[in-house]
Amino acid sequence: MNILYVGHTYTIRANQAKIVALARQPGVEITLVTPQGWRGPLYNNKTDTFDRAEAPNVTHRIIPAFLLGKEGAYFYNPSIFSLIATLKPDIVHVEQGAYAVSFTQILLAVKLFSRRSKALFFTWWNLPYRPRGIKRILESFNLKNSDAAIAGNSAAKEILKEHGFQKPISILPQLGVDVSVYQPISNFSAERPFTIGYAGRITTEKGVLDLVRASAQLSRTNEVSLYFVGGGEALEDAKREAAHYGVPLRHSEAVRNEQLVPHFDEMDVLVLPSRSTPEWVEQFGHILIEAMACGVPVVGSSSGEIPNVIGDAGLIFEEGNIDDLALKLGSLIDTRERVRLRAAGLERVKKHFTHEKIAEAQVRIYRELLGLQRESVSDYIDSAIRQTEVHSA
């Protein structure tokens, strides 16, 4: 099976571990296409070249692109057309949204030079939208000429259906975790206060001020502290509130995801307290599975996809409800409950969220598109990736 895999996510070596896992599936040959770099938080301006020692059946083609950092607008130079004409891949997998210019480019190349290729795309977009003008034209073309889609969350699937996409849609994360990097740590220390952790963008929609206030409630009867990793406009507000309530708050600057492991060792629990807004709803919450892979119990709000990610391996509170968050955190003062959730989180990641599990699911999708098996994608996702029921469109 010859796969053309296109996405700027894999300009970073750590994310390329997912491609390695995919390449280790039986009968797979991969041509990975990335731009020469990417502009954005925690990205390099220059692409990390794929290490073929990890997977010799992967060829990495770095194709110059324009408007780097603009997901919907960036596009490759014309050599992408000659590449597709030469490869004539069985599967073309583009990790870009429904109206992305780069996806239109690749679909045009497929229509011109490789009509037998099956094309699918990935999207996280989980808010209602109505594209206009050129975006509407691009989306209409892209959806019409795609054979399948992978949605990163249940809301994204429903939005694709609302926009008239009637081909198979599977729900699957873009990335899992690399278990060679994210490994269980020993984070139960009797020598420190109960430490409540947060990692990510420190902004109001991420609910960090809710977390400070819930921790303040807990501090009335327990010794607690906060540990934040990241940066954002709400950091100084969080520090001021924590000082006002007398809750110690330690802060570390943002680091790349693969560098988070020692920071998890500072936390007794990791909280993702996101608040939905008209412009943003939590799409997945990758930090949750990273923390679980390291044996850190997790608590998340009810925003977006968070409850589906956590399942029964952590605690969920009503988003924006500080009292509910304080209650959930209070239940974790008991070390026995943290031990229980630690084990449940490790097991959930192992069964559902490693790169290997994601790769297995994707290959099932490819094989079904090529008519190589009878099992439905939805049945596989249901048994191998999610505990809640998922239906293919």
Structural class: alpha/beta
The total of beta strands comes to 15
- Strands of the widest sheet, in order across it, are 3-2-1-6-7-8-9
Largest sheet: 7 strands, parallel
Low-confidence stretches: 374-393
Number of domains: 2
Question: What's the helical proportion of residues?
Answer: 25-40%
CATH fold name of the largest domain: Rossmann fold
Notes on the structure:
- It contains 14 helices and 15 strands.
- It has 393 residues and is α/β, with parallel strands linked by helices.
- Helix 5 links the parallel strand 8 and strand 9.
- Helix 2 (79-87) crosses helix 3 (101-113), helix 6 crosses helix 11 (322-331) and helix 13 packs antiparallel against helix 14 (377-384).
